[in-house]
Write a structure and sequence with these properties.
The complex is a heterodimer of chains A (204) and B (425). Chain A is built from nine helices and two strands. With 204 residues, chain A is mainly α. Classes of the chains: A mainly alpha (204), B alpha+beta (425). At the A-B interface, helix 4 of A face helix 1 of B.
Chain lengths: 204, 425
């Protein structure tokens, strides 16, 4: 795929980026608090690892990059986990093991290898922020849908008139896939329009 | 060289991040520890007054390390006891289990320093949902607030007798631990409460007591819902007595020490018998009719008054040829009211048994794997009190009904022994 500097999200459709991050999106989008917590963790991990990797990528030899980047990402995820456990223990309980699995997240590693490794700090930071915000927004949208329809709650507070109408399957794994698929389809539609226009311009 | 460079880079990264984590842990470690302690004590704080706190030394008893505790007489139902850090009282975690529970209920109780319940909650309920006393009576749990160890103003929930009784007993046991170890002042039971608590001991056949009509010196009248008799709290002079009258009209009087004082308080017994006679259903005729059907040719059917206070509501002797038999009509409680008839010969062996429910609730019993009622009843014949086994009464998947039949059988044997030992009135 041609690498361009104008696309801050994955060169290709953002929905493809969602596929890479489907694991933690699914795990954290059952509750809006968990979604925002995971979004903040992803943003922080992306940002910090991008800064360090873009600063060090010229020093680290090619054959050592993979283990080095993994160590850096894991280190930052661990530090973020410690801070979240101290200040947001409820969110950490909700996220469970999925917070730790950010260390091996394809999204963060993709960002490290394809962006931070080849670009300067400014571009890397911008990409990290945009990617992090993108995921946070997607997780929040999925969480609102799943929490309201699946649990009849919002921010953990019950919605009285919806208690008899909640669809519990939406709050579960099936619902997670369903909602994510719908969100991906919407993103595809929106970004598909943008890419068609770009391709037409490039062809002319 | 390459390998060395790689290893060096990785080592530097590891050292840097290790150092960062160590430094961050100095800040986050105490906060996380405090959060964890808060999570552990959150259920306890919810039953304690505002401003309560529990520290690391709060746990003064744990069932897992009972040997390390100085507390004595702690029943198995108590899981742990915590002392509040500011002297506001204690929190106790305990379990309650009835005969028909699938798993114990887990309860947390907050007891203030003055020995009264300040909070109570059920952390885990595993009984049948339809028997949940919280839905049958939403005011039941709040009725415990402010009670001392006597639980004088706490009753049982109708329709959830077994689970609410188990719950009340567990709370009582938990509070008694604190009182027995001088951690709170024990509540003082009134004479009325002491006498009422005697009823299950002196009249074990009385189930599901409900308030009945009072008169004269009768302060409180209770009727057993299975119609096995009445219990009255009667005052005479300055003192109050418990008078129990069985379905056959026989009365016994007890004082607050649990002693039988019938002979010394005949006026109390007379008043109780008169009140009971006006309200008690008599079952002699029903028994006589049933005995005639069960034993064709039975003659000289004579009612017997017994001084037993179990589930037997009528007894009679009859002749069949030269042999003498004794018939007993028992009203025990299973899944619903059971009417069990037992015939015992003069040697103490069962000669016949039947239950009204086998006839009128045939579909109910046939549901249990197609129960062979004839074979079931025949299984009792020939058994004596010594040879009879609980297994004889078992009806597959009908535990409560089986237990009711067992109770009726044992009470019939006890009533027979009473006749043989001169308990006939």
């Amino acid at each position: 795929m041609k690498k361009t500097k104008t696309s801050y999200l994955l060169r290709g459709t953002p929905s493809a980026l969602l596929v890479l991050g489907a694991g933690f999106v699914m795990a954290s989008s059952a509750d809006i608090r968990a979604a925002l917590g995971m979004g903040a963790a992803v943003l922080a991990a992306l940002l910090l690892s991008s800064i360090v990797i873009s600063a060090l990528h010229k020093i680290i030899p090619a054959y050592a990059k993979m283990p080095a980047y993994l160590l850096i990402i894991t280190g930052f995820v661990s530090l973020i986990s410690m801070l979240m456990e101290a200040h947001f223990p409820i969110v950490v309980d909700m996220l469970g093991v999925h917070l730790a699995t950010l260390s091996v997240s394809a999204v963060i590693y993709r960002d490290a290898e394809e962006v931070a490794d080849h670009n300067g700090e400014a571009y890397s930071i911008t990409t990290a922020i945009v990617t992090g915000i993108f995921f946070t927004v997607v997780m929040a949208v999925c969480a609102i849908i799943r929490e309201v329809i699946g649990n009849a709650t919002i921010w953990g507070q019950p919605i009285a008139f919806m208690q008899d109408y909640k669809i519990s399957a939406i709050a579960g794994a099936f619902g997670g896939y369903l909602v994510l698929a719908i969100v991906m389809a919407v993103i595809n539609k929106l970004t598909g329009l943008h890419h068609h226009e770009k391709e037409e311009k490039e062809c002319k | 060289m390459k390998l060395l460079k790689t290893l060096s880079i990785l080592l530097v990264i590891i050292v840097v991040f290790s150092g960062a984590m160590f430094a961050l842990n100095l800040y986050t470690g105490p906060i996380i520890e405090s959060n964890n302690a808060g999570a552990e004590f959150a259920p306890l704080l919810s039953v304690m007054p505002e401003g309560s706190a529990f520290d690391g030394e709060a746990l003064i008893y744990s069932a897992e390390n009972a040997g390390n505790s100085s507390l004595k007489d702690v029943p198995a139902s108590v899981l742990s006891i915590y002392k509040e850090a500011n002297g506001q009282g204690y929190a106790i975690r305990c379990t309650a289990e009835s005969s028909y529970s699938t798993a114990p209920m887990e309860i947390t109780i907050g007891i203030s320093a003055d020995g009264k319940i300040c909070g109570i909650q059920i952390d885990s309920y595993n009984d049948t949902a339809s028997f949940d006393f919280r839905t049958k009576d939403p005011n039941y749990l709040p009725s415990y607030i402010g009670q001392d160890s006597t639980l004088a103003d706490v009753s049982i929930v109708a329709g959830s007798t077994f689970s609410s009784t188990a719950f009340k007993n567990a709370v009582s046991e938990a509070m008694n631990v604190l009182a027995a170890n001088d951690m709170i002042a024990a509540g003082v039971k009134s004479d009325a409460q002491i006498l009422e608590e005697l009823i299950p001991t002196v009249a074990p056949g009385y189930t599901k007591l409900a308030e009945s009509t009072t008169s004269g010196n009768i302060q409180k009248a209770l009727k057993a819902e299975n119609d096995t008799g009445f219990a009255y709290l009667i005052t005479e002079g300055e003192a109050t007595y418990l008078a129990v009258v069985n379905a056959m009209g026989v009365c016994k009087v007890y004082d607050t020490e649990g002693a039988d004082v019938t002979t010394a308080h005949e006026a109390v017994a007379t008043e109780a018998k008169t009140q009971a006679a006006a309200n008690q259903t008599k079952y002699d005729e029903a028994l006589a009719t049933k005995l005639g059907r069960m034993m064709e040719g039975a003659t000289e059917i004579t009612a017997i008054e017994l001084d037993t206070f179990n589930t037997v509501v009528a007894a009679a002797s009859f002749k069949l040829g030269d042999a003498t038999y004794y018939g007993f009509y028992s009203r025990s409680i299973g899944f619903h009211q059971m009417d069990v008839y037992m015939i015992i010969d003069e040697n103490g062996a069962i000669a016949g048994m039947d239950a009204k429910q086998f006839i009128f609730d045939e579909e109910y019993f046939m549901a249990f794997g197609g129960m062979d009622v004839t074979a079931y009843k025949q299984g009792f014949v020939g058994s004596t009190a010594e040879t009879w086994s609980d297994d004889t009464a078992v009806i597959a998947t009908a535990t409560m009904t089986s237990n009711a039949v067992k109770e009726s059988t044992k009470d019939a044997f006890a009533s027979f022994n009473s006749i043989k030992n001169g308990g006939e009135q």
